[in-house]
Amino acid sequence: MQPTSDAQFAASADDSVPPLEEVRDGIYCYGLRQPGTLPHYTLSYLILDASGAVHVIDAGWDSDTNWATFCETLDTLGRSISDVASVTVTHLHPDHLGMAGRIREASGAPVAIHRAEQEGIRELSTPLVDADVLERLEGWGVPGERRPELLAAAHQRGQWPSFTADRLLSDGEVLDIPGRSVRALHTPGHTTGHLAFVDESDEVVLLGDLLLPNQFPGIGLGGTPSSNPIDDYLTSLDTVSRLDAFEALPGHGYRFRGVAARCAETAAHHEKRTAEVAAALHPDATVWDLAAQLTWTAGWENLQGLPLLSALSQTALHAERAGRVGTAGV
Q1: Domain coverage including residue 313
Q2: Over 70: is that where the pLDDT of 324 sits?
Q3: From CA 52, how far away is CA 74, in angstroms rounded?
Q4: Does 120 lie in the same domain as 216?
Q5: Euclidean distance between CA atoms 204 and 287, whole angstroms
Q6: Is the pLDDT of residue 153 over 90?
Q7: What is the domain-level CATH number for residue 78?
Q8: How would you classify residue 209: left for phi > 0, otherwise alpha for psi between -120 and 50, otherwise beta?
Q9: Do 80 and 174 fall within a single domain?
Q10: Which of 20, 65, 88, 104 has the most neighbouring CB atoms within 10 Å?
Q11: What is the total count of domains within the chain?
Q12: pLDDT at position 194 over 90
């Protein structure tokens, strides 16, 4: 895997945000701050169509600072908010969808997402029922004294704003960008309706959070899947790995080449985790027991709140995949 942007590579290693860069003729990328968590910025892409209108891929976290950056970026390109013709979002997470509503309100530009993401937004914006969450935590074997902490974390994750897109996309649809052919590629796993976007003529693939150069994305983080999200994710990696000749334009980190190698590395990480869970399985093992035996970047003993909830959810997915009957995720 080879970085293709020195500025983005440098920003990924410190607390800066990447500046505006031209990726191809009429395709631009810049960073928007993502507060309170890593990665610390989202990469947003601007595509100019044949008439010079602007099409946004991933709007970034909604904040006044990011709005100012967005407007300044348009100005640098000799454009204004009235020139924005569409907003398309790879997935429902607020660091990608967040500012789409503000852009739509100011410009009138329609917002497009995958149809499964619209259903995911509906699910996530529905208030959680404490009894249902506590039942899940008990089924995972979470000690009683840790359940209030994880219940609070579940509500934190469940505080999702309602949003209705103007266009619901399906796999293979071409975006309405005159003079260009940008195709939607359904890549479920990170979320149920996650999309990548393929520009065949410019040989670039916009990856959202499907594949990142410097971390392994979480899995099963939005929408009700029809199968195990890990299996879906590995299938998506296999699909995207066939675009090895293309430059990768991810949602975080930095642009790079070597899509197939990074797909293989990411898939191996998850296969290894499933194997670790399978080796630890026994008839009385709970999700809590299994998670405690796995290696976590922050250390199992240091996981609290939302990171702990995510760790348990990921462990449940791997346990299900390893052959254990159960349901993953709160």
Answers
A1: 128-159+281-330
A2: no
A3: 12
A4: yes
A5: 40
A6: no
A7: 3.60.15.10
A8: alpha
A9: yes
A10: 88
A11: 2
A12: yes
> Same structural domain for residues 183 and 137?
no
Who contacts 179 (Cβ-Cβ below 8 Å, separation ≥6)?
49, 50, 51
Q: Which residue has the tokens 């199968």?
A: 227
Q: If pLDDT is split at 50, 70 and 90, which confidence band does 37 have?
A: low
121 with 138, same domain: the answer is no
| Tokens 């998670």 belong to residue | 291
Q: Do both 78 and 177 map to the same domain?
A: yes
* Average pLDDT in the chain: 93
Is the pLDDT at 164 greater than 60? The verdict is yes
Whole-number Å distance between alpha carbons of 41 and 275: 32
User: Which tokens in the block code for residue 282?
Assistant: 């026994």
Q: What is the pLDDT of residues 268-317, one digit of tens each?
A: 999 999 999 998 888 889 999 999 998 887 789 999 998 899 899 999 99
